[in-house]
Amino acid sequence: MRGFAAARRLPTCAAPPASPQRAAGPGVSRLKAPANGYYQGMHASKRLLIVLAIVLAFAAGFGLADLLARPGSTASAAGQTALYGQVLRDLQHDYYQPVDVGRLGGAGIAGLLASLHDPYTVYFTAQQSSAFRAELNGTYTGIGTAVDTAGGRLTVTQVFAGSPAALAHVRPGEVIVTIDGLPTAGRPVSASVARIVGPAGSRVRLQLRRSGSPGLIDLTLTRRQISPPLTTSRLIDDHGVKVGYVSLSAFAQGAGQQVGRAVGALQKRGAQRLIFDLRDNGGGLVDEAVKVASDFLPAGKVVVTTRGLHAPKDVLKTAGGHPTSLPLVLLVNGNTASASEIVTGALQDYRRATVIGSKTFGKGVVQTVLPLSGGASLKITIAAYLTPLGRNINHKGIEPAIVVVQKPGSSADQVLQRALRSIAVGR
Fold first, then answer.
1. Which residues are registered as beta bridge partners of 141?
2. Are residues 293 and 159 in the same domain?
3. pLDDT tens-digit map of 248-305
4. Based on the number of CB atoms within 10 Å of its own CB, is 114 exposed (0-12), middle (13-18) or buried (19 or more)?
5. Which of 54, 59, 189, 393 has its CA 20 to 30 A from that of 421?
6. Is the pLDDT of residue 307 over 50?
C-alpha cells in the first residue's frame, strides 16, 4: 500500500525531486536523499535503463520485455537501445498508419517493468507523479480515501472524516470495481489512484461492491483538496489507569514530529501507558520511520539496515531527542506494511513494545524515485531491508506476540480491547 485514495501511500515522493528520495511503502515523501556517492554510482546505469525504456517504445508489440528478461541474454543495454531505436525509426518512417510514439512508449515501459515481476517498481506518468508530490506534501485533491489491493481487488482501507467519500458513506473494506467506467481489476494501484485524483471541483464516477449488498453501488463524487491528519490521539481511563492512545495513518513528511508531539501531550495529561496504533498504515518514507522509532528508542539504536545490488549497506540509527520511556503496546494488522514494519520490527527486536494484532503485510524492500522527461518518473526498488536483529520480513510479515484478529462486522475494536487487558494484567 497502501496509499491515499487519490494517492497510494507508496515509498516515494510525489514530485520527482532533483535527487532521489527514499521511501518504504507499499504504498509515500520528503526524506533525505541517499549519500552522494551512492546516488552518483547508480545514476549513470539507471539513466541508461530509463533511456532504454523510453526508446523501446514499441516493446509491447515486439516482445521487448521478454527479450531483455530472457535468461542468459548477453545483449548490452546500449546495444539494445540502438537496435530498437532503429526499429522505432522504421515504424515512424514506414508503418502504414501514423505512429503514436507516446502511446507506444507508455506500453513499452509498462511491458519492460512488468517483466521484473516487482509490483513496487512502477512508471509514473506526469499526472501520477504530481499526485505523489501532493501526497508527500500532506495534501492532495481527491475524494478522501486510502486504497490498496486485496485479492487482486482495489479495496478501500481508510476513509477520512469529512471527505467527499465519508459524506457519501463509503466504508473501509468496500471494493472499487470501476472508475469512470474503467475496471480496476488487474491494474496497478498507482494507475487506479491516478484516475481517482483530479482537479478540485471535478467529478469522478465510482462503482463499489459492498459486502452484504446485492449488485453494485454507483456514486458520483466531487473532488476537493484533502489534508488528511497523520495522527489521532486520546487519553483512555481504563479502570483508573490512564492510557495514551496514538494512531499514525502514514509515514509522510512530518510523521515523526507529529507522533512525538502527540506522545508528549498525552504524557503531560498524565498518561501512564501508551498504545501506538499502526493498523492499516501502509508505510511511506524510510527517514520518517527512523524518526518515529526515535520517539520510543534511545539515540544510536539501529532501526533498519538496507542493502541492494547497486546500493551499499546503509545502517540507519535513531537520532538524539527525548524518547518516551512509558510502557508501550503496538497494534498491527495485515495492512501494516513497509515503513510501518520497519518501526514494528525495531520495537519488537528491542523488546520495547508488546505487539498485538494479526501478522503484518510483509514488504521488506525500499524504493527510490528517479525523474524522467516530461514530468514522468520511475519508482524503482533499490534495496531490501533487515530489522535490527537481521530479520528479512519480505513476503513473510511480522508475527505479533499476541494474535488477535478483528471479527468482520463487529462494532467493538477487539484488538484495542485486548491491548487494554494486556496493560491491566501487565502482559
1. 225
2. no
3. 988 988 899 999 999 999 999 999 999 999 999 989 899 999 999 999 999 999 999 9
4. middle
5. 393
6. yes
Structural domain count, the chain:
2
Gap between the Cα atoms of 334 and 398, Å rounded? 9
Query: Residue 220 sits in which domain range?
Result: 140-226
Distance CA 68, CA 61 (A): 14
CATH number for the domain spanning 280: value is 3.90.226.10
The edge-to-edge listing of strands for the beta sheet with 328-332 is: 231-238, 241-248, 273-277, 328-332, 353-357, 402-403
Mean pLDDT of 308-327: 93
Residue 139's Cβ-count burial label (10 Å; 0-12, 13-18, 19+) is: middle
Q: Model pTM?
A: 0.70
Q: Could you report how far apart the first and last alpha carbons of the chain are, in Å?
A: 31
* Residues assigned a catalytic role: 338, 349, 363
Alpha-carbon torsion angle 354, 290, 320, 305, nearest 10: 100
- pLDDT band at residue 152 using 50, 70 and 90 as cut-offs: confident
Report whether pLDDT(48) > 70: no
Helix, strand, coil shares, percent, the chain, to 5: 30, 25, 45
